[in-house]
């Protein structure tokens, strides 16, 4: 069931103010509902009373540390406005001040608030002073992720010490019965007492992970005094954006290596033409070429490729990376999951089939960063999920994306190539002697 349908079943008030608590997908459910209502012409304010991910990481525009008047003006037109204040952690935002919230919310036709933290666990039992609910709340939705079922409690539950007060000290696998018991005792009973008259419900998220979702719903609901709804967010379409960096100075090469002929063709053309074929065959959604050289940009335009000039190549590879990234982000979809794959133009022997196999295996890996490698040594190309854009945009000088990769090594998928020559950068003409 979709989020807007759940609200309709519960009874939608004229101006719904909905607090999302629990664990297992609060932010994604908030954005789904916000987007749906915005598409129907509503002005929707999204905020938090605790912490939530920065809008940039979510691939969104946000009004962070903005005057209340600016937020209110943004809510004069239909759409989603994500607003909050800066946090001590750059990946997160905190809530608005009471005065800013009051002014902004007065202009919104619906307010959706992330009112609980879960540290990425699929289930939570609240501790003291949790969740943080505003008095104007009309609905409280308690989320839990189906991925928690069947797994030991200590692997899936945030605030484990409070869960054990309800279920006892034994670390047993979570069942439908025990999940219902946790949510009823941990959330429903205290919330009913503290916020009488509000509409409460439990949402079991990730229903696609269950073999018999309706049966599980009945089991959980039998332990609860509020309705239980099943929900699965539609998977976002993954979009791949290719960015070819062709703006270097070739200082060690002795001449412009990108125009240097390799088997009768300029070096940069080998990679650019292969990437163009990959895009044409539908394996990538866009292709951007960044260069300081008019000859390369002219050829890109001739082939129907979006070429962007870098007027500040002397600032290092970070400037080309960021110019390419800004250009590629113009191809983002409305509700897509975007990845940016960076290539260098001095790898003429990188094969099209190798790139295709890399993309296939990367998609299946579930990782958010990937790179080609030889004997576990990272090489180019490198691909990043949209959530790493803020870090990439902070790079300076001749520092490239690999510095971001190294900070998140646990999230990296390594695609091992058999031929190290495919990943070799032609920094000097000695490379030609080895071919």
From TrEMBL:
Entries under InterPro entries matching the protein: MobA-like_NTP_Trfase, Nucleotide-diphossugar_trans, YqeC
Q: Where is the MobA-like NTP transferase domain?
A: 243-411
State the superkingdom: Bacteria
Any one GO molecular-function label of the UniProt entry = nucleotidyltransferase activity
In terms of PANTHER family, this protein maps to: MOLYBDENUM COFACTOR CYTIDYLYLTRANSFERASE
- Full protein name: Selenium-dependent hydroxylase accessory protein YqeC
Question: Species name for this entry?
Answer: Candidatus Blautia pullistercoris
